[in-house]
Amino acid sequence: MRFLVRDRILGIGDDWWIEDEHGRKVFLVDGKAMRLRDTFELKDTEGRVLIDIHQKMFALRDTMLIEREGEPLARIRRKRLSLLRNHYRVSLVDGTELDVSGKILDREFAVEYDGELLAVISRRWLSVRDTYGVDVVREDADPALLIAVAVCVIHLAEKEGQED
Fold it and tell me: What is the per-residue pLDDT across 33-45, written as a single tens digit (0 to 9) for each?
């Protein structure tokens, strides 16, 4: 499954639709303005909140939290010892860890679990300006979670002002 994400999605207070590869609206990212911390909601086409994304307050390193139905789902932060490429760790509440690495600011990176590819984030396939694709490789993967991970990682990388 491939999803098209507008690159300006990370503006607080902005709302953006995520479309499938056929141009159908699938998810709405609702950027919440007037909050003390960066907050986004990923909603379905009916307006139901599927995932809440927000920045953890009072953390030593920038950390984003993902919640589903008010319950913690994942914590995302930059790996400490990643010298060559941008590297982020996604810690799920069940103890599972996902690895995100690549050229985050260029929108060319991958999400893996235990060495197995779950999703590829890339601009290469697209001719649409200011858009990148989230290609969910595994059939049993949670597309909403993987899109939320991509949004969080890009947001953290842009806040840190990192260059690859």
Answer: 544 456 788 999 9
Judged against a pLDDT cut of 90, whether residue 46 lies above it is answered with: yes
- Domain spans of the chain? 2-162
Q: What's the predicted TM-score (pTM) here?
A: 0.85
Q: Taking Cα atoms as reference points, which of 36, 37, 70 lies closest to residue 54?
A: 37
Q: Is pLDDT at 20 greater than 70 in this prediction?
A: yes
Say which CATH topology domain 2-162 has: Porin (2.40.160)
Nearest 10 degrees: CA dihedral of 161, 43, 59, 87? Answer: -50
Q: How far apart are CA 145 and CA 138, in angstroms?
A: 13
Cα(68)–Cα(161) distance, integer angstroms: 28
Specify the DSSP class assigned to residue 101. E
- What CA–CA distance (Å, rounded) separates 109 from 126? 15
Cα 149–Cα 143–Cα 30 angle in degrees, nearest 5: 65
